[in-house]
Amino acid sequence: MSGRRNKDRGRELEYEVVDACKAKGLQAHRVFASGAYKHQLGEDFAGDVVVEGLRVECKRRKNGFGVIYRAFEQDDASVVVVRADRAPRLYVVKEDLFIDLITRGKNNAT
């Protein structure tokens, strides 16, 4: 697969995330050039997507995250926790739960 197609696939995922969040009434936008100019333009231009003020990195792989998908399927889990040695824990959630948590936080803040 060409480098160009990989960039296109990444951009497609970024717009999918933005569209899904906007469809649920959340403020979301894609960052100009997916954060490529953060060093020149500042931290407001870091990350791929911003959802309700949260910076979101979007990573798409053909099958590079299979272990995470299998972990969700194992017992119909809501959250999967992953950690590499000497690294912090990461909490992975499905899109519906992510949007629900963001919406709850937004509603509780007002």
Would you kindly provide a written description of the structure presented here, covering whatever features stand out?
A hairpin with a 2-residue loop joins strand 2 and strand 3. The protein has four helices and five strands; from the N terminus they run αβαββαββα. The chain is globular, with a radius of gyration of 15 Å. With 110 residues, it is an alpha+beta fold. The protein starts with a helix and ends with a helix. The protein has a three-stranded antiparallel beta sheet with strand order 1-2-3, with helices on one face. A two-stranded antiparallel sheet has the order 4-5. It has one domain.
Q: Point out poorly predicted stretches.
A: none
Helix content: 40-55%
| Rg over C-alpha atoms, rounded to the nearest angstrom | 15 Å
Structural class computed from helices and strand pairing: alpha+beta
Question: What is the average per-residue confidence, as pLDDT, rounded to a whole number?
Answer: 91
Distance between the termini: 46 Å
Give the number of domains. 1
Provide the succession of SSEs: HEHEEHEEH
Report the biggest beta sheet as strand number plus sense, adding barrel if it closes: 3 strands, antiparallel
Widest sheet: strand order?
1-2-3
The oligomeric state is single chain
Give the DSSP E fraction (strand runs of 2 or more residues). Answer: 15-25%
Q: Would you report the number of β strands?
A: 5
Helix segment tally = 4
Shape: globular
